[in-house]
Amino acid sequence: MAPIVEIINVSKSYWRGNRAIPVLVDINLSIAEGEFLALMGPSGSGKSTLLNLIAALDHVDSGAIQVGGIDITALSENELAEWRAVNVGFIFQFYNLIPVLTAFENVELPLLLTGLSRRQRNEHVEMALRIVNLEERMDHYPAQLSGGEQQRVAIARAIVTDPVILVADEPTGDLDKVAAREILELMDRLNRESHKTIIMVTHDPRAAEKARVIRRLEKGFLNDVHSQDPH
Amino acid sequence: MFILKILIRNAFRHKLRTLLTILGITVAILAFGLLRTFINAWYGGVEASSASRLVTRSSISLIFHLPLSYKDKIRQVDGVKTVSWGTWFGGVYIDEKNFFANFAVDAKSYLELYPEFLLSPEETTAFLRDRKGFVAGRKLAKRFGWKIGDTVTLRGTIYPGNWDFVLRGIYRGRNETIDETQFFFHWDYLNEMMKKRGSARADQAGWYMVGVTRPDRATEVALAIDRTFKNSLAETLTETEKAFQLSFISMSETIIMAIELVSFVVIIIIIAVVANTMSMTYRERIGEYAIFKTLGYRGWRIAGMIVGESMIITLIGSFLGIVLTFPVAGIVGKMLSNYFPVFNVAEEAIYMDLAASIIIGLIAAIVPTYRSVRIRIADGLRRIG
Ligand SMILES: Nc1ncnc2c1ncn2[C@@H]1O[C@H](COP(=O)(O)OP(=O)(O)OP(=O)(O)O)[C@@H](O)[C@H]1O
Ligand SMILES: [Mg+2]
Questions:
Q1: Residue B77 φ then ψ, to 5°
Q2: CB–CB of B297 and A57 under 8 A?
Q3: What is the reported pTM?
Q4: How far apart are alpha carbons B173 and B224 in whole angstroms?
Q5: Contacts of A78 in chain B (CB under 8 A)
Q6: DSSP B159
Q7: In this prediction, does ipTM exceed 0.90?
Q8: What DSSP line would sit under A93-107, residue for residue?
Q9: Degrees (nearest 5) of the Cα angle A154, A157, A159?
Q10: Closest Cβ opposite residue A90 in set B294, B297, B376
C-alpha cells in the first residue's frame, strides 16, 4: 500500500544552554496506510520526540514529513492546528482527559472545532463511545473512571473525528496487565476492522506484539525493519 | 454554551481559592464604590447646581453684605430673568451639634428660581402667607420629627435672640441629587426685626441669586452685573452657581485627591491578587491547555478560556460588591448625614465599578494568556504525569 506517512532525512536537537543535543539524526521512515507500527527503544532514545514530529506537535530542525501527501513541516502554526484537528488522533500514557468534563464532553471536544450540528456531534460521540464499550459511563467524570476506562475514553476522543493516523505514546504504560490487554485489543481491532493507521511508542514487548511492524530507535538512529506476523 | 460550561467548572475547581478571590474582589469593589460615592457626595452640591443661575456676592468676602437696592439694578441687566436674595442666618436648633443650613430668602422669587424644590401649591400658599413661616427639606423634617404647623425655635448666633418659626411646608427634591436638608424662612421677617432694632444689618442681602434667560450667556451676564457695581462702595463678584459651590470645596481638593488615589490603589491591589490566582491556576493547567492545543484548539481559544475564567470570577465578585454598595452607602450616608446632605450611590460610581472590574479581569489574565499562547505543545505535554 502507498505510504501515508513519509519521514525524509529528519533531524532534531534540543538546546541545553548553548550546546545542541542531537535527539534524532537523519531519520528516514515510511509508514504504509493501514499499518500498525510499534516504535521501541530505550528511554531517552527520542521515541516521543519522533512521534510528536509526526503528529505536528513539534517542529523538525531539518528534513520533511509528509502525511497523506501534505508536507506538514511547511505549514504555519495555525494551519497545523487545523491539520491536527482533522488528521491526527492522540492517545497518551496519562490519558490526558480534561478533568472538569464528562467522558461524553471529553470525546466531544475535537468535534466542537468542526461544523457539525449538535445532533451530528451526539451521534459521533455515542458511536465512538460504543466502539470503546463505554456508552454507559458517558456521564462520568475522569476521576470516576478506572485508568483503563479513562484510556478508552481517550481512544474514543482520538477516533471520533475519524483521523488519518492514530498516534499513541505508551498507551499502556500506566495500566495493569488486564487493562493493558484490553487497550491493545481495542487498538488491534481499530487497525484490523477500521483500517486505522496506528503509530505506537511502547516499552512493553507484549504491546509491541500486537503491531505488524516494530522499529527500534537507538540514540537517535532508526534500526532496521522487523516485520512480524501478527500472533 | 459549551465554553460557558467549561469556564464555570474551571473557575470553581478550587472552591476555596476562588471564593476567597471573589471575596477579595467584592470587598475591593465595595470600597471603591464607597470612595467614589464619597467623592460624588463631596461634589454633590456642585452637580445639583444649575447652569442658568448666577450668584452675586460681595467681591471682598461672603461676610460682607450687599445693599438691597442692588436687586433693582441687577434686574435691569440684560439677560437677567429673575432675582432673588438671601442671608445666612446661622441659627442653632437646641444644640450646636444639630447643625443644618438655615437662611432667610425672598420667598416668592426663591421658590421661582429653585423649581427643583418641590412644594405643593397649598404649602406654598401657606408659607407665603405666614410671615413667620419656614420651609424644611424632607430629610431635615424627618430628622427632627417636625410636622406641618410645628413651631421651631432657633437660637440666633449672628442675629441675637430666640427666633420662632412655624413649619409651613416640607419640600422634596426633584431628583436624588437635591439637598433635602435646607431650612429657609422669610427674609422680610428678618429684615423687619433688624429695622426694629435699628441694626446696621437692615436692608442688606448676603447674596443675590440670579436667573438668566439663556444659560449659554451666563458668563456674559455675570460680567455685566459686576460691571454695574464697579467703583461702587460694595463691588460684586458674580459667578455661576457651580463656580460658587466649587469655591467652597476647592480648599479640600487635596483631601479629595488623596481619596481618589486610595480608590485606585484598592483596584491595583485587587488586580495583583486576582493576577496571582490566575497565575496559580495557569501553572496547574499548562498540561490541559497543551491537550487542547493538541486537539487543534488555537491560541485565541485558549486565551478565551483564561480571560473568560478571570472575567467570571471578577464579575461575580464585582456584582456582589456593587449590590452591597447600596445598603452600605445607606448606612454610611446616615452616619455622615450632617456633613453630606446627599450621599447616594451615583450612576457614575456604578459605571466606574464596572469599568474597574473589567480592567481587573483583563489585566489579571494577561500574563497567563500570553504564556499559554506562547508555550510549545511538546513542552506543555511534558508537564503531565
Ligand atoms: N523540550 C526538551 N528540552 C530539552 N531536552 C529534551 C526536550 N524534550 C526531550 N528532550 C530530550 O531528548 C531526549 C529524547 O526525549 P524523548 O522524550 O523523545 O525520549 P523517549 O524515547 O520518548 O524516552 P522515554 O521512553 O523515557 O519516554 C531525551 O534525552 C530528553 O531529555
Ligand atoms: Mg517518551
A1: -65, 140
A2: no
A3: 0.75
A4: 32
A5: 298
A6: S
A7: yes
A8: TT----TTS-HHHHH
A9: 110
A10: B294
Protein residue with least CA distance to atom 18, ligand 1: A46
- Establish whether residue A202 lines the binding site of ligand 1, counting it when its CB lies within 6 angstroms of any ligand atom: no
The position carrying cell 458511536 is A127
How close is the nearest chain A Cα to the Cα of B333, in Å? 45
- Domain A3-225, what fold? Rossmann fold (3.40.50)
Q: Among B305, B48, B361, which residue's Cα sits nearest to residue B181? A: B48
**Cα separation, A68 vs A5, whole angstroms:** 6
CA distance B296 to chain A (A): 4
> A110: which DSSP letter?
G
Question: What percent of chain B is helix, strand and coil (3-state, nearest 5)?
Answer: 60, 15, 25
E strand or H helix that includes residue A186: helix A177-193
For chain B, 385 residues long, give each residue's pLDDT as a single digit of tens.
678 889 999 999 999 999 999 999 999 999 999 999 888 887 766 666 777 899 999 988 878 899 999 999 999 999 999 999 999 999 999 998 888 989 999 999 999 999 999 999 999 999 999 999 999 999 999 999 999 999 999 999 989 999 999 999 999 998 877 889 999 999 999 999 999 998 888 899 999 999 999 888 888 899 999 999 998 888 999 988 888 777 766 556 788 889 999 999 999 999 999 999 999 999 999 999 999 999 999 989 999 999 999 999 999 999 999 999 999 999 988 888 767 777 888 888 899 999 999 999 999 999 999 998 888 888 888 877 6
Whether A85 sits inside 8 A of B295 (CB atoms) is yes
Q: Which of B3, B4, B285, B294 to mutate to test the interface with A (most CBs of A within 10 A)?
A: B294
Alpha-carbon gap: A230 to the closest alpha carbon of chain B (Å)? 31
